[in-house]
Amino acid sequence: MSLIDPGIEAYRDVAPRGAVDFLLHLSERVRGRHFVHVNSTRVGGGVAEILRRLVPLMNDVGVKAEWEILEGDRDFFSVTKSFHNALQGEEQVFTEAMLEHYLAVNRTNAARLSLRGDLVLIHDPQPAALVENRPSDGNWVWRCHIDLAAPQRRAWSFLRRYVLRYDAAVFSLPAFAQNLAIPQFLVYPSIDPLADKNRELDASEIDSLLTPLGIPRDRPIVLQVSRFDRFKDPIGVINAYRMVKPYRDCLLVLAGGGADDDPEGARVLAGVREAAARDRDIHVLDLPPDAHLTINALQRAATIILQKSTKEGFGLTVSEAMWKGKPVIGGATGGITTQILPGVTGYTVSSVEGCAYWTRYLLAHPEAALRMGEAGREHVRQNFLITRQLREYISLLARLVTT
Amino acid sequence: MSERAAARTAVATRPFTFTGCVELREILGRRARDEQELMEEIEGLPAESIYYHTSTVFLRRPLVAGSYPNDFAIWVGTQIRDQVLAERLGMVDPFQFDSPERVREEILSVLDDHLEGISLVPRIVFGDPFFFVRSHIIEVPTGLEARTLREFRGALAEVDVSALYLHALDARARWGVPGGHFAEWIGEALGLTLLSERVGRLNPYMGGLERIRVMMLALIDAELDGAFATERSPR
């Protein structure tokens, strides 16, 4: 973060008109109420990133918010990583010993953590079994951030036993909801407009961040920012770029990371480098996980931003791109279809050809690209900023404590 | 006294209290994969779900215009790719009906008529199913109040856009107030009937709620500045 805990007042200039005052009035209903977040890490990953801002903001508007961290050993996190993959549809093996260890760690943490609150929001599968030891008072809600559209049956049926003991569940997309006998709410994730990844940068900052990367600024830049993962379809992006290139001279930048500790990512990155070989206008950047300002600068320097995923959870990089006022062309999958309004803020596509077609169109029609970029920024302002997520969590608290 | 002169001095018989709202969205776990299923599901949905997919679309998109104005039309157009039905559903205006039940009847009538005229039921091939959600509206006072047109203008300019939704649109759809609360108050409590009529004619199809705000402010400014007589109707 470039700012240390900016309070809610700092969001007046970026949130929709009247939104901060409205939030303060809404919070009056739950002033002094106790809201406990529980997840399994304080650093790294999208959940920790958003909680680091959300918890101070909750306190700033008068809710007593706390953030508890579940602790586990290497074996525990190995089991939960398998859970994560299985719930997202990958076949995994689970032994009784693995499941027992998962439960034992949760029980140990239940005795250690402070889990009393008007609303206890348990994030993701790692701490889900804490509910076994929930106190008799307070509301418990399971917040699922992952793509549960097609979970592996055994993993989900185990976890489902615990989810049913909550008062409600929250999902990021309707497609992720399950057949459950508890209410299931929809809360989209959000971006923080004041974080390094999204804050305003002036031209000199952008230049100083991009110069070391050796990317020329003399032609339009087509950019995709994403992990080197086959579901992000980086090879498809290169093929689309090659279809466009004879019609419009442009550069392609593929910026990502996560290949260091992920064998699959390393293989995808190697394939991307091979596919890009001998084309000096394709720039493949393997960035460290904290390169937030660099990504921000790349997005601001780009003409068009792609997120050509073939499978996606929510895909917040789309909102990050739109926040920079850029038109976005994204794969018609997951949360990308929620964020992009086709023909208004960009286009959703289902093929390499579709990606090439709309890229060529937007490169040839800068006025349309500008208009879509502006519409996209306003769409994000209204729907995908942290102030909106804060409003919905506080509403959930208000609803649960008054019903 | 002329209406123009009255606009600057009139004190309302009752204050206007601006109330905003938050929408909590509940996923129903129901889905449709083709137009027949869409029709069958719509028949059995809670009214709050019809309301979510038609009315509160404007609350979620207060500024961006250009796509179809309700979720059913958007899904049929982008996922099933049946442009004829998308166009027909896109013209269903939930604010012309006094309850979500009437909106449901209108949508079912369009769907039924469309399905009668085709031999194969269009379904998703590459697209996503339609997922049904329902709306829980929580009303929240904003602390803003007005007794004169000038105070009203000041509050309107700064209030959260959800208050525009509640007073300008929801008042028509859920509470049966034909021109919405703003027009009603301007006419009844301030006695400015011409301005009330013009405000009551504003609709969200001109560019969303933020466009309604801009146009209302322009109408009020014209009234306060005395230029109202030369303004053209916003329609």
Describe what you observe in this structure.
- The complex is a heterodimer of chains A (403) and B (235).
- Chain A has 403 residues and is α/β, with parallel strands linked by helices.
- Chain A contains 14 helices and 12 strands.
- In chain A, the strands form 2 sheets. Chain A has a 6-stranded parallel β-sheet. In chain A, strands 9-8-7-10-11-12 form a 6-stranded parallel β-sheet, with helices on both faces.
- In chain A, helix 1 (19-28) runs parallel beside helix 14 (386-402), helix 6 (203-210) crosses helix 9 (292-301) and helix 10 (317-323) packs across helix 13.
- The radius of gyration of chain A is 22 Å and the shape is globular.
- The two termini of chain A are 38 Å apart.
- Chain B has 235 residues and is of the alpha+beta class.
- Helices cover 52% and strands 17% of the residues of chain B.
- Chain B contains 12 helices and 2 strands, in the order H-E-H-H-H-H-H-H-E-H-H-H-H-H.
- In chain B, strands 1-2 form a two-stranded antiparallel sheet.
- In chain B, helix 2 (35-44) runs antiparallel to helix 7, helix 3 packs across helix 7 and helix 10 (180-188) packs antiparallel against helix 11.
- Chain B starts with a helix and ends in a 10-residue tail after the last helix.
- Mean pLDDT of chain B is 90; it is low at 227-235.
